[in-house]
Amino acid sequence: MSGIVPIVEPEVMIDGTHDIDTCQRVSEHVWKEVTAALQRHGVIWEGCLLKPNMIVPGAESGKTASPEEVARYTVMTLGRTMPAALPGVTFLSGGLSEVQATEYLNAMNRIKDLPRP
């Protein structure tokens, strides 16, 4: 035991012209691959934190998504890819304003069926 907590950051960049559906598909693929790699290396989920991106359209796409839409896509993708033993998720806000990131987090917290450990 080394007494350290791995914080894993599988980030799909906000840069680009992709829409929210593309971000969701790519994020799901990346997060599944990261989960599989951590499993192969024997990472103990109960001692790990995840710090992924939120599911949003690309910054150069000219498209916007409501906080509720970002929350729904992000929570859905987490549920499809992360083991229940994972004790916590923090989020990267790279490229998002403080206001946007806060609105998205608030919308996630309002989801009634949000899976919690």
Show unreliable segments.
Answer: none
Element order: H for helix, E for strand? EHEHEH
Number of helices, where a helix is a run of at least 4 consecutive DSSP H or I residues: 3
Beta-strand proportion: 5-15%
Largest sheet report: 3 strands, parallel
Shape: globular
**Radius of gyration over C-alpha positions, nearest whole angstrom:** 14 Å
Number of self-contained structural domains:
1
Q: What is the CA–CA distance across the termini?
A: 23 Å
What helical percentage do the residues reach? 40-55%
Question: What can you tell me about this protein's structure?
Answer:
With 117 residues, the chain is mainly alpha-helical. The protein has one domain. It has helices at 20-40, 67-81, 98-110; strands spanning 7-8, 49-50, 88-89. Helix 1 (20-40) packs parallel to helix 2 (67-81) and helix 2 (67-81) packs across helix 3. The radius of gyration is 14 Å and the shape is globular. The two termini are 23 Å apart. The relative contact order is 0.21. Belongs to the class I fructose-bisphosphate aldolase family. One of its GO terms (molecular function) is fructose-bisphosphate aldolase activity. It catalyses: beta-D-fructose 1,6-bisphosphate = D-glyceraldehyde 3-phosphate + dihydroxyacetone phosphate.
Quick summary of this structure?
This protein is mainly alpha-helical. Helix content is 42%, strand content 5%.
